[in-house]
Specification:
The chain contains nine helices and 16 strands. By secondary structure, the protein is α/β, with parallel strands linked by helices. The strands form three sheets. The protein has an eight-stranded mixed sheet, with no helix packed on it. Strands 9-10-11-12-13-14 form a six-stranded mixed sheet. Strand 10 and strand 11 form a beta hairpin.
C-alpha cells in the first residue's frame, strides 16, 4: 500500500510538470498577451504550417481575418478564434484562390459570424475555391472586390488595399490582395503571395509602402521580396508564415536580404503563432509554440 501511495504521488508530480510545461497544450492554443488591454492593436500571425492566416484585432475590438491556411487548417483557425473570444469577424480577406491561403476559409465562414468578405476579382476552378464561394453564398454575403485604393471601414485604424494594382494573367499570385494597416505611428503590411510583378506595380507609388512590420510575400519565396520592394517598405520586423515544405521556403537569399535591410525576422515554423501588440508608437511581440 505504501508503495502504491509513493507511485501515485510520483505520477501526480509528473503530470503537474508536463501540464505546466505545455506538453499537453490544447491543439492550436494561443496564450493571450498580458497587455490585452483596450487601446492596443493586436496582430496574430497564426501557425498554420505551410500556409497563411492572420487575425487583426483593432483597439475598438473589431476583427479582420486574412486567409485561413490549407483545407486541413480550417478547424485549427476556428479553435484559435474561439480561444481568443472572437464571435464576429468584421471582415474576411481572401488574398487569392491558392489552397494554402483560402483552404480553411469555408470552415471559418461556416462557424463564425462574418460581416463582409473581400477578395480580388480572379476566379479558380478548384473544389477548394468553390467551397469558399459556397460558404460565402450560404451566409447571404457577396464578395467585395479587393483592389488598389479600396478601404475596409474600421474605427481608429486605417486599412487600405495597395494591390492588385492592375489586371493580370492567370498567375494567381500576381492577383494577391495586399493590405496596409495603420494605427497612429505604427503600420503593418500584409502581402499574401504578391510576386515581383505586383511589387513593381506597387512601387509606382512607393511612398505608401513603408511599414514597421512586413508579412513577407509567398512564405519567403524568391518570387517575392525584391530588393527595391524591401528598400521601399523598410520593415523593422519581417514575419514569415511557413511550415515544412519541399519548395525551399524561406529562401536563404531572401532571409539575407531582409537581415541586410535591418529587419528582425521571425518565422512561424520556429516560433509558432507570433503576436504583435502595438500601442500606436511601439510594437512588442509574444510567441506561442503550441501543440498540434
Amino acid at each position: 500500500m505504501k508503495n502504491k501511495s509513493i507511485l501515485s504521488l510520483i505520477f501526480f508530480l509528473i503530470i503537474t510538470v508536463l501540464s505546466s510545461s505545455g506538453a499537453f497544450a490544447h491543439p492550436g492554443r494561443i496564450d493571450l498577451p498580458k497587455n490585452q488591454a483596450s487601446g492596443t492593436l493586436q496582430v496574430y500571425y497564426f501557425d498554420v504550417g505551410q500556409g497563411d492566416s492572420t487575425l487583426i484585432r483593432t483597439p475598438e475590438n473589431q476583427y479582420i481575418l486574412i486567409d485561413a491556411g490549407n483545407n486541413n487548417q480550417g478547424n485549427n483557425v476556428v479553435k484559435y478564434l474561439n480561444h481568443l473570444g472572437v464571435n464576429t469577424l468584421d471582415a474576411v480577406v481572401a488574398t487569392h484562390p491558392d489552397a494554402d491561403h483560402i483552404g480553411g476559409l469555408d470552415d471559418v465562414i461556416k462557424s463564425i459570424n462574418v460581416k463582409s468578405v473581400y477578395a480580388p476579382k480572379v476566379s479558380h476552378t478548384t473544389d477548394t475555391y468553390k467551397d469558399f464561394l459556397l460558404a460565402v453564398k450560404n451566409k447571404g454575403l457577396t464578395i467585395k472586390q479587393a483592389k488598389k485604393d479600396v478601404t475596409i471601414p474600421l474605427m481608429g485604424v486605417t486599412a487600405t488595399f495597395l494591390a492588385p494594382v492592375n489586371e493580370y494573367s492567370s498567375d494567381l499570385n500576381k492577383w494577391s490582395a495586399v493590405l496596409r494597416l495603420g494605427y497612429k505611428n505604427n503600420s503593418f503590411l500584409f502581402t499574401g503571395d504578391a510576386d515581383i510583378k505586383s511589387e513593381t506595380d506597387m512601387l509606382i507609388n512607393k511612398s505608401i509602402l513603408k511599414a514597421d512590420v512586413l508579412k513577407v510575400g509567398s512564405h519567403g519565396s524568391i518570387s517575392s521580396s525584391s530588393k527595391k520592394f524591401i528598400d521601399a517598405v523598410k520593415p523593422r520586423y519581417a514575419i514569415i508564415s511557413v511550415g515544412k515544405n519541399s519548395y525551399g521556403h524561406p529562401n536563404a537569399g531572401i532571409l539575407s536580404r531582409l537581415k541586410d535591410a535591418g529587419a528582425a525576422v521571425m518565422r512561424t515554423d520556429q516560433k509558432g503563432t507570433i503576436t504583435a501588440i502595438s500601442n500606436g508608437s511601439t510594437i512588442t511581440f509574444t510567441t506561442t509554440k503550441g501543440a498540434k
